[in-house]
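Morning!

This is the sequence you dropped in the shared folder:
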Amino acid sequence: MKRIVLLRHGESTWNLENRFTGWTDVDLTKKGMSEAQKAGELMKEKGLNFGIVYTSYLKRAIKTMNLVLDTMNLNYIPVVKEWRLNEKHYGILQGLNKKETTAKYGEAQVQLWRRSYDVKPPHLTDDDPRNPRLDAIYKGIDPSLLPLTESLKDTIERSLPYWQTTIAPSMAKYDEILVVAHGNSLRGIIKYLKNISDDAISSLNLPTAVPYVFEFDDNLKLVNDYFLGDPEEIRKLMEQVANQAIGV
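The structure's back. C-alpha cells below.
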C-alpha cells in the first residue's frame, strides 16, 4: 500500500482578511500555525511516516510543512520546493477583499473568476509590482512560464505535469509522501486522481490544514481516499471555504 497525503497550508493572514492571495507571499496566522501542528499530530497518531515532502515556493505552505515535520519528528526527510505547486494566480484581484470585490463586480462574476474551470481574472501589467517576473523568488525561471493571471485550467496545466513526472513516480521509492500546497494546485491534482469533471470541480472546497489521504495499490492504482479528522467538523470547514467570496 502506498499513500500520498495532500495538505493545504494553514490559515494565512489574507485568508483571515478574506483577500484574494494567489502568488502573494503572505505568512500564517497564529491559528494557521496551530492548524499545521494539529495536522502533524493527527498524521503522527495515524502512524504516517513520510519519506519525502513536496511544497511550493510560498511561505505559507513552507511554514506549514516545517511545523508538520517538526511535530512528526521528520525534520530530516528530503524537501523539494517547486513553483509549479504555487496557488492559482489571481491577476489584478490579488490583495482585494473578496466581499468588497463581490459588491463591485457581482457575485456571479466573482464566482466565475474564483471557481470556474477556464475563466481567468484580468491579468497584471508587465510593470505591476505584483508581477512574479519582477520577484527575486523566481529568478532563474523562464519568465515566459510565470503567469500574470490564471484560470483553474491554467493552474492544472502547470502543476499536473509535475505530479505526473516527479511526484507520482517517486512512489516507486517512497511508501508515503506528503504534498503541502494550496487550494487550487491541490484541486487540480484531486481532479485528475478522482476523474472529476470540469463543472463538478468548482464545488470541491479544501479546508486549511486538513490532511487528505490517497491510497494506492502496488500497481499505483488509486484504491481509496479520505480526510483525516472529524467528518462533521470537516464539513463545516468546507462550507466556510465555499462562503468566503460573498463574506457569509
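Headline: The chain has a mean pLDDT of 93.

More detail when I'm at my desk.
O.
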